[in-house]
Amino acid sequence: xxxxxxxxxxxxxxxxxxxxxxxxxxxxxxxxxxxxxxxxxxxxxxxxxxxxxxxxxxxxxxxxxxxxxxxxxxxxxxxxxxxxxxxxxxxxxxxxxxxxxxxxxxxxxxxxxxxxxxxxxxxxxxxxxxxxxxxxxxxxxxxxxxxxxxxxxxxxxxxxxxxxxxxxxxxxxxxxxxxxxxxxxxxxxxxxxxxxxxxxxxxxxxxxxxxxxxxxxxxxxxxxxxxxxxxxxxxxxxxxxxxxxxxxxxxxxxxxxxxxxxxxxxxxxxxxxxxxxxxxxxxxxxxxxxxxxxxxxxxxxxxx
Length: 304
Prior knowledge:
Layout: E1 2-4, H1 18-41, H2 44-70, H3 84-113, H4 120-145, H5 149-178, H6 182-210, H7 220-228, E2 233-243, E3 249-257, H8 264-282, E4 286-293
Parallel strand pairs: 3-4
Antiparallel strand pairs: 1-4, 2-3
Helix pairs in contact: 1-2, 1-4, 2-3, 2-5, 3-5, 3-6, 4-5, 5-6
């Protein structure tokens, strides 16, 4: 006998699209301005930020597409719906950030061997403007980034852009007063390191979800011990816990009952207690449990 906790499913909260559209509009407008400024000032820090803003726009576009797909109803072929599209979007955003870091590091070492003069005044102006625009976009997305992995990827893009603009501003000030041009390149390397620091956990978390690994905050051994502590349960097998998207945990398990509790009268009570334990202690609201007699798995099955 199996039991599916339909009445305990968490309701999916669709991502509001308006904040993403605002952030996308702001970044697209500023991208054009900063590209002109990077060419005018010959600044690697600004050029790096332009490249990063291109990935920002692409990242925000991924968020929009993934949010659109996640709203589509489930079908007989896609019985979970399309919620995983948000996780795929987060993974793609992480890969984009890695590529950007690689470019920044490569170009920075090239610039260190061939120091080039830059226009510090233009860098300062555009760096300050970048902090305002990217900071505003990041603030717009921040509430959604706390509960959505896909938006968190875009938020990290914007946050690293704020750091990039701040780095460009600091570099411009240093060059303005000292004419020490390597400052622009060294700050670019520092920005790349900061981006990399936030990117690795994003890729790791999204990849773990796509591989249907046990969530990091769940100890599956503790769940097994708690289920075995129930008076009805003699053994369990095929226990699995995975994540559908960033916040919907799922569990499936076979419960083998003690000899004295193998009548149908005890099965429903066993299921109710097991479901309540899993939900209250571990916050897993979607679980599928199968109840069976002890040693049922090893018993030869009659031909049907």
